[in-house]
# Entry
Amino acid sequence: MTQRPVILSGIQPSGRLTIGHYTGALRNWVALQQSHQCYFMVADLHAITVRQDPAELRQRTLETVALFLACGIDPTQSVLFVQSHVPEHTQLAWVLSCWTSMGECSRMTQFKEKSAQHRHLVNVGLFAYPILMAADILLYQADLVPVGADQKQHLELTRNLAERFNHHYGPTFRVPEPYIPPVGAKIMSLQDPTKKMSKSDPNENAILFLTDPPDAIRRKIRRAITDSGREVRYDEQQRPGLSNLMVLYHIATGKSIPEIEREFEGAGYADLKAALTEALIEFLRPIREEYERLQNATDYLMSILAQGAEKARTRAHQTLQLVYERIGLLLAPWESVSTPTANTHHADL
Ligand code: TRP
# Structure
């Protein structure tokens, strides 16, 4: 039996998803789901490392699921689930935390940045965040993990933990490879094109949400910062604002940057903005419409999540039992005898 390589990835439900999530993650996920066995999750446990409003978190979690589907994640191909529905994530995270040094966690760039940002609440969860992420990945014996460049360090830690554990206890975890998508265009803030577009930017005009209706798109593009100059020529260094709009036009139309330069020869920024507005409206329309339809179909979304959690748990549970066995925890009386034994290699999972 040939098995498809396994992929795991996740997005935190800590804000509304932006066009950057589409180009950086969802678009690639959709492209990978036929050739790979994919596990895609909403990382709600990661989101609570910073304060969340409970009602809002619940709503965002379901919204994120609806957007995964609206962007083309196919629940008959891929396993779509919510992290907290699979308790094995936190269970394995505890075991792994006993194999991670304080130093390793303190060296994480994201921890350093976030703890500087949330000075009043540098909690242990924020510190241990990469360990939970390692658990997410190792539970599924993932071969590949599509992540943005900012998560590469966490993946490196995951690999180290897997190797450390395997070295000590024998082959238990598959050691995952990062999958950094082929130079996906990085989308910058519409208000400060030297910063990455972020779903948590307090200025909404800086962000294009996947669910933005046409009038919001019109307003945001109209107000988008451009640089001085007139011709539409790509120059990330000298004209970051204009270049960002060109990247967005490329995403919405599929046209290459040289094609876009040719299209706007002799025309100005205003012409680009007008064409971009229309292109974005059409590009985002099907996603928004499908999202709105799904928003009213909570039962359907919940049934997808129930199936997803069940499939995810089957695999996660096998790995966790193997880990428990390896480290010498007494097999719980209700666990079946067919649980993997110390002779089981991770490749059998
Ligand atoms: N930490 C990731 C982010 O903020 C989200 C995430 C959580 C994740 N668990 C994961 C990504 C496992 C890939 C694999 O982007």
Observations:
- The longest helix spans residues 298-327.
- The chain has two domains: 6-184+296-344, 204-294.
- The first strand starts at residue 6 and ends at 11.
- The chain has a mean pLDDT of 93.
